Amino acid sequence: MKLSRIINPSYPKKVYLSTIAGGAILMLILLAKEARHCSELLPFFGLGLAIALVSFVLAIPTMFLFWQFHHWMIKTNMFFWKAKILLSVFSMACIGITFFAIDPHYFTTDYIKWPMVYMIAMCTSVWIFRIQYDGMSPNPRPTDL
User: Fold this and answer.
1) Of 126, 124, 96, 125, whose CA–CA distance to 112 is shortest?
2) Which residue in 141, 129, 142 sits closest to 9, CA to CA?
3) How do the pLDDT tens digits run along the chain, 145 residues long?
4) Is residue 109 helix, strand or coil?
5) Comparing C-alpha atoms, which of 140, 142, 138 is closest to residue 5?
6) Labelling 67: which of 3, 25, 85, 125 has CA 20 to 30 A away?
7) Is the dihedral of CA 67, 69, 70, 75 positive or negative?
8) Where are the domains of the chain?
9) Distance (Å, rounded) from C-alpha 114 to C-alpha 140?
10) What are the backbone angles phi and psi of residue 3, rounded to the nearest 5°?
C-alpha cells in the first residue's frame, strides 16, 4: 500500500516522544545492570528524569530532520514499508551524527551501547506506530465510522 493523503499527522510526534521515553528506560536498565548493590539503584530514579530531559533537548535536531524527511516521503507517495525502512536508516544516521558531535569516543567499544540504546528505541518506535490511517480519512465523517 502506498502512502497517500490519509497520513497520520501525529506519527512524528509519537516516534519522538516514545524514543525519548524508551531510550531513557533502556539506558536506566543498562545502568542498573552495572550496579553492584541495591543501594546504588536509588539515584537512578532521579537520573532517569535527567536523561529524559537531556534526550528531549538533544533529539530536537534529529526529530526536525525526521519530520522533514517524513513529509518528503509523503510527497513522493512511496510504499509504507519502504518509507519505514528509510526512516529507520535515516534516524539511525542522525542519532549517530548527534552522538559523534557530542563526543567521538561514543563509538569506541566501551561506549557504543549509549548510541545503540537510542537507535534501538527509535527504530522500534518507527515500526510500532502506524504511519497512515486504516482506510479512513484523518477527519472521519459519521458515515465513515
Assistant:
1) 96
2) 129
3) 555 555 667 888 899 999 988 988 888 888 777 766 666 666 666 777 788 888 888 888 888 888 888 888 777 777 778 888 988 999 899 888 888 888 888 777 777 888 889 899 999 999 998 876 554 444 444 443 3
4) coil
5) 138
6) 25
7) positive
8) 11-128
9) 42
10) -65, 145
